[in-house]
Amino acid sequence: MNEADSMRITHDIAVAAAETLARLNPQMTFLFISGAGADGTERGPVMWARVKGKTENALRRLPFKAVYVLSPGIIQPLDGIRSKTAAYRVFYAIASPFLPIARRLFPDYVVPPNKSAAPC
User: Fold this and answer.
1) Cα separation of 53 and 13, whole Å?
2) Domain, as residue range, for 60
3) In angstroms, rounded to a whole number, what is the distance separating the alpha carbons of residues 111 and 35?
4) What is the pTM for the complete model shown?
5) Rounded to the nearest 10 degrees, how much is the dihedral formed by the CA atoms of 21, 23, 29, 35?
6) Per residue in 1-11, pLDDT tens?
7) What's the rounded Cα separation, in Å, for the pair 17 and 31?
8) Of 3, 63, 76, 97, which has the maximum CB count within 10 A?
């Protein structure tokens, strides 16, 4: 994805929604799912990290009661869930035996999906 498309999808849509919600209810708490490695300086060499960092910064400036940003490194698929992206399928096929160990060693970076959550 190019940077303009990434900005539109990741930043512009999230910030527009958050601005509307902050205007309607500034006592609201806002939660944004970002990604490990987001670049809060907005000047690093990795495009997706700059876009995520810019989005996080913009959201934190909004007048919410609180803004929380979750930044998982890996979300471990369970129950036979498979990505539509071929590269991710290959990654998970190779990494899946190691993910339980990685989750124990790096619990802030390897996140299992919440089985009790309703599907979206």
Assistant:
1) 15
2) 3-70
3) 11
4) 0.75
5) 60
6) 899 999 999 99
7) 12
8) 76
